[in-house]
Write a structure and sequence with these properties.
By secondary structure, the protein is of the alpha+beta class. It is built from four helices and five strands; from the N terminus they run βαββαβαβα. It has a five-stranded antiparallel sheet, with helices on one face.
Length: 111
Amino acid sequence: MYHAHIYFELAEMAHASQVRTNIIRNLPQLTYKGQLIPMPIGPHPKPMFEIHIATADIDYAMATIDALRQGLSVLIHPVQLDEMAAHTVDARWLGEKLPLNLGILKQLIGK
């Protein structure tokens, strides 16, 4: 299982909503289709929406998201016990790589 976080600026909510609609329309196999979150949350530095992708679909989904992201940055990471590794060394980016708030993850794992 993978999570994809699609980031946007608050002033881009309408644009982000259209990108979300296009991704969901083109990837009906997504296992979760989150709503737009209009603020940074957890380690995520910007407003975003989250989708979940089955491991078997990750290559196709990444190509599709890349084609539909319309300039938005996307973090794609595996779901695994080591959250720090998932969000750093095991993460993949489409578009600009954004600095995550890793201090939040360190607090969660007690390091």
